[in-house]
Amino acid sequence: MADYRIETVRTGYRQWTARNDRGAEVRMAAADDESGQPSFTPVELLLAALGGCGGLVIDRTARAVDHDDLRIVVESVSAPEDDGRVGKVRVTYELDIPEDANGGRAAEVFARGVRLTHEKHCTVSRTVEHGARVEAILPDGTVGFAEGGDS
């Protein structure tokens, strides 16, 4: 049984909607498709997943630091040699931490929370960092593509 299941259905030319079993939906379209807006591109959703996962984990790992105003910005940088992949992802945690918070240790506690988020707890970040096996199953049940991960 899968840990997660998302159904993606075509809603128009170069327009798709992803749905989870809890009823949430997100629209996807090409960035240059004006009729598909507002929507996310698939890469934007990957970056959003990194930011969202990081935020949800920070809520646990850095709960000793007031982070109600935390903003997480995720950016991708790609070059021609990245061959159609995202070359680098930068996750920036923007938060004003008062110097006197938590006995002057708030910045250290928050940094530890961020480190634990990426080293141990954020499934999305760890998957991007280490890669996952991708298998494409064709309508007849055969594998049309399989690559990556630990097999």
Automatic annotation (TrEMBL):
Q: What is the E.C. number? A: 1.11.1.-
Top-level taxon of the source organism: Bacteria
The reply on keyword Oxidoreductase is yes
Q: Which Pfam families match?
A: OsmC
Keywords associated with the record: Oxidoreductase, Peroxidase
**A GO MF term:** peroxidase activity
**Do you know which PANTHER family this protein is assigned to?**
PROTEIN YHFA
Name by which UniProt lists this protein: OsmC family protein
* Source organism (scientific name): Streptomyces monticola
At the highest ranks, the source species' classification is: Bacteria, Bacillati, Actinomycetota, Actinomycetes, Kitasatosporales
